[in-house]
C-alpha cells in the first residue's frame, strides 16, 4: 500500500455521515462561491494576456520592433508567474493553519486591486520608463494573488464533497478558467466593436481592467457567505494542523510534489499556447483580424467548460490517473493536426484546431482538482497543491507565449516547433500521472 493510500484512508474513516453526503444547498453554495471567485481571478489574469498580445507592445514598449515589443509584453506577462510560488507559499501556509476561506478572500482582494491599478497606468509616452516598470510591478502583484487562488477553491469543493463525487465537484473551479477567459475576451470584443482601433489603443483597453473593481466586490461578498472546509475543521479540532506546512511539505512530500509539477506542466504549457500565444500567432504571423481571433477564442469557451466538468465526472468512475493519461497523450497526438488546421488562417481552421487541442486539455484538467487533493495529507494539502501548481506554472507557463513566438521564428514562420513542444510536454505530463498509484478513494479504501 503506497503513501497516497495511507493518506486517503484516515480521512475517509473520519468523515461524519453528513459530510460524506453533504446537503445539496451547502455544496452548491461552496461550488458557486469557488467558481465565481475563481472566474473573476481568471478574468483579471487573462485580460493582461489579451492586452499583452494586442495593445501593450505599442503602449508600453514603443521603441521596440513589433516582434521585440511582443516578446517584451509577453515578458511582462511572464513576470506574474515569478511571484506565484511566493503567493502559493504564503496562501498555502495560512490556508493550512487558519483556514481555506480566509485565504480565498485575501487572494481575490490582492488580485482585484492590482488589476484595477493597471487600468489607471499612463503609457510610455507619458511617464517614460516608469510605465513598463509599474506594469511589471502590478503583474507581480497579480501573480502573488493568483498563487493560492485555484488550489484553495479546488480544496473547498473537494473537501466539502462526498468521496464519490470529488472529481466532479473539484472540476468546477478549474471550469472557471473558460468562464474567466470568455469574460475577458468578450470584454475586449464588445469594447472593440463599439469604438475604433485608435480609441481602443488610447483608452478603450482600460475598461476591462477597471471593471475588475466591481467584479471583485461581488466575488468577495459571495465568498464571505460560505462555510469553512469540514476536513480542515476536523483536522484543527484534533490539532493535526499544528505542523509547519511548508517544512512538512519539503521534508515528506517531495515525490508527490515532483509528480504534481510534471502533471501540471501538461496543463499550463498547453493552456497558454491555446490562449495567449494563439492570439498573438494568429493575428501576427498568420495576419488574421484581431476581432476574428478573439471571437473564435470566445466561441470555444462553452465547449471547454463542458469538457472540464465531463473530465471530472468521468474521473469519479474510471479514476483520475486514467483520465489524465488519456487526455495528455491525446493532446500530444492532436498537436500536428491541430496546428495544420490553424495554419490555414481561416476562421473554421482556427476554430477546429483550437477545439481539437484545447478539448483534450480541458478533459483531463477536469480531474486535476481531486487528483491533487488526494495526493497530499489534509495538514499540508493547501501548501502542497499550491506550490506544485505554482512551480509548474513558473517553469512552464511564465514564458510559454514567448517560447512559442521564438519557436515560430526558428522554424521560419511555421508551427512545427510549437507542435513538437506540445508533444514533449504531453509525454512528461502523462508519465508523471502514470508514475504513482491511483488516488481514487473508492479504489484505495479497503
Please tell me about this protein's structure.
Helix content is 82%, strand content 0%. It has helices at residues 3-13, 17-20, 24-54, 56-60, 66-97, 100-118, 124-127, 130-146, 149-160, 166-194, 197-204, 206-224, 230-237, 245-252, 254-285, 290-318, 320-342, 347-365, 368-373, 381-397, 400-410, 416-434, 441-444. Helix 3 (24-54) runs antiparallel to helix 5 and helix 9 packs across helix 20. The longest helix is centred in the N-terminal third of the chain and has 32 residues, at 66-97. The radius of gyration is 21 Å and the shape is globular. It starts with a helix and ends with a helix. Residues 1-22 and 442-446 have low confidence and may be disordered.
What's the short story on this structure?
With 446 residues, the protein is mainly α. It is 82% helix and 0% strand.
List the helices and strands and how they pair.
Layout lengths: L2 H11 L3 H4 L3 H31 L1 H5 L5 H32 L2 H19 L5 H4 L2 H17 L2 H12 L5 H29 L2 H8 L1 H19 L5 H8 L7 H8 L1 H32 L4 H29 L1 H23 L4 H19 L2 H6 L7 H17 L2 H11 L5 H19 L6 H4 L2
Tell me about the largest β-sheet: none
Radius of gyration: 21 Å
State the separation between the terminal residues, measured CA to CA.
10 Å
> What's the pLDDT, averaged over the residues?
84
> Quaternary state, please?
single chain
Total beta strands: 0
Which parts are unreliable, with pLDDT below 50 for 5 consecutive residues or more? 1-22, 442-446
SSE series: HHHHHHHHHHHHHHHHHHHHHHH
The percentage of residues in β strands lies in under 5%
**What is the overall number of helices?**
23
Give the % helix. Answer: over 70%
Structural class: mainly alpha
Q: Which descriptor suits the 3D outline?
A: globular
